[in-house]
Amino acid sequence: MRMIGHHIYDRFLCPALDKACSQEPVMEQRARLVPQAEGVVLEPGIGTGLNLSLFDPGKVKTVIGIDPSETFLHVARERAQDAPVPVELTQGTAERLPLEDNSVDTVLLTYTGCTIPALASALAEFRRVLKPSGRLLLCEHGRAPELLVRGMQTVLNPFWKLFAGGCNLNRDIARELEKAGFSIEHMENFYLMPRPKFATWHYFGAARPA
To answer: Quick one: which of 116, 102, 132 has its CA closest to 42?
Structure first.
């Protein structure tokens, strides 16, 4: 019964999240980031594959997409048929990647770090599979700098997680990267308006294994 319930939840959540994550301001950020990916690219939490059309075929050898939801992956497989680069899709979790050490050139995170249940474990996995010369590219939302906004995030987070597929409002993405042994190469922070501030403080940039 629990598996059936989870499947129904996925089917309800999939179109809602796909629509929310494909709005124009969000897609503009994806379009800024995804073409920077190079070589063998790992996209954990690939979801419905919204990034697949944005990869640069002159830079990317293949994209390995991992997601725990078979419902989301079904949509991603359809989008992969029109992708400009080879795509491999696998059901799995970011905390336990089916990849060898030092086998990936780029890890791509777009609106994924907020939903991974054990983010520290996932970041350790990203470090493990990244080559020493590899990069982690990210566009994430998270903990805001303003005290009032942070307070709203703390209050709203339990309810937000429940109805937004496990998404957390208040993760300090930059701090989590540094704790996991990444060195931040560059980072932009900004509110992506016109959405409400508690859900739109962004971390946009790149990091390397320290």
So the answer is: 102
* Residue 130: domain span: 2-209
Strands 130-141, 182-191: pairing is unpaired
pLDDT tens profile 172-209 = 999 999 999 999 999 999 999 877 999 999 999 999 99
Amino acid identity at 46: I
CATH of the domain at 19: 3.40.50.150
When divided into structural domains, the chain yields a total of 1
Bridge partners, 187 (sequence order): 205
pLDDT tens, residue by residue, 104-130: 999 999 999 999 999 999 999 999 999
SS3 139: strand
pTM: predicted TM-score of the whole model, two decimal places: 0.92
CA 184 to chain centre: 17
39 forms bridges with which residues in the sheet? 60
Q: 39 and 61 in contact (C-beta within 8 Å)?
A: yes
Q: Using alpha carbons, list the distances in angstroms from residue 142 to 150, 153, 161, 206.
A: 10, 9, 13, 16
